[in-house]
Design a protein that fits this description.
Elements lengths: L3 E6 L4 H12 L4 E8 L7 E4 L2 E4 L1 E2 L11 E4 L3 H13 L3 E4 L28 E3 L3 H17 L1 E10 L5 H11 L30 H13 L6 E8 L6 E9 L5 H9 L4 E3 L11 H4 L5 E8 L6 E8 L3 H19 L1
Parallel strand pairs: 1-2, 1-6, 2-5, 6-7, 7-8, 9-10, 12-13
Antiparallel strand pairs: 3-4, 9-11, 11-14, 13-14
Helix pairs in contact: 1-8, 3-5, 3-8
The chain binds adenosine-2'-5'-diphosphate.
The site of adenosine-2'-5'-diphosphate has 17 residues, from α1 and α4.
Amino acid sequence: MKKINLAVVGATGMVGRTFLKVLEERQLPIENFYVMASSRSAGSTLTFNGKEYVVEELTEHSFDKPIDIALFSAGGGTSEKFAPIAAAHGCIVIDNSSQWRMDPEVPLVVPEVNPEDIAWHKNIIANPNCSTIQAMVALKPLDDKYKIKRVVYSTYQAVSGAGLAGWKDLENGLKGEAPKKFPHPIANNCLPHIDVFLDNGYTKEEMKMVNETRKILHNDQMRVTATTVRVPVFDCHSESINIEFEKPFEMDELLETLKNAPGVVLQNNSAENEYPLAVDAAGHDEVFIGRVRRDESVESGVNIWVVADNIRKGAATNAVQIAEEIIKNMQ
Ligand code: A2P
């Protein structure tokens, strides 16, 4: 297998560190490895595959050296400025920020769902929002089979989705300290507010779910709505998803479809109190689905409960899987 030169931008962050872990676990064929962040952490070291790497400051010249793939998770502003510079140097950027996701020139990819979209990239590929990724893995097999008419998302999202600062707000909040990242205490609380508010009254996180769902499932007309909530959980996003179909379904067949879907683990045994839980999904790469039940208020619809590790499948693992697809096609 061809060995590649790979850079991680934002390597010191929550997702950045998980990139390193996932790259090690999945043993990507890496020749030269670079870790980059801001001037704040330049000069510090990170361990990868048993070797210490010095963190470089990200600058306009970082991509003068040959780098095949760069995994970015350093915020939208950093991606806006530096992804085009990397791309112009022939590096393929897999970007975890929301900066490029809705750009019509940029594929938005969940490898289990729309790997074919990777083919039309122009050196930037976007990693979807964490809450969208896990929903897509659940929705795609159902859309293929029963054609989704409408989706209602209600999310219960972990603080790790807000980076190290979000994590610290919960950790310190549980000791009685005031929040620094969130506008209100997150300890013993639920905040119906993720990312900024938009003119239509929704948050940006909610509209990300709406717009990204349509782009990934290739259906501009799909009716989608969302309420996204930050909850006092460190790891893993949980989602209640209500789905209405065009076609009728048999429950046995629907369960079988989910069970056989790529990247899915079905945990649907309510009689034994078995259903997906954040504490169980943490550290895993699969999307866990349970509480599957017919929505009796519509002709053809279902309610499901979907849990995944937001930093792994919701960010780092998904990006590394995209990198694997690219490397496969390089051979
Ligand atoms: P640094 O550690 O130097 O601040 P998180 O979302 O977990 O807080 O992580 C954000 C990541 O993005 C960190 O690695 C951070 O580096 C990096 N980062 C933030 N701003 C920049 C920037 N202007 N240039 C490069 N990396 C940045």
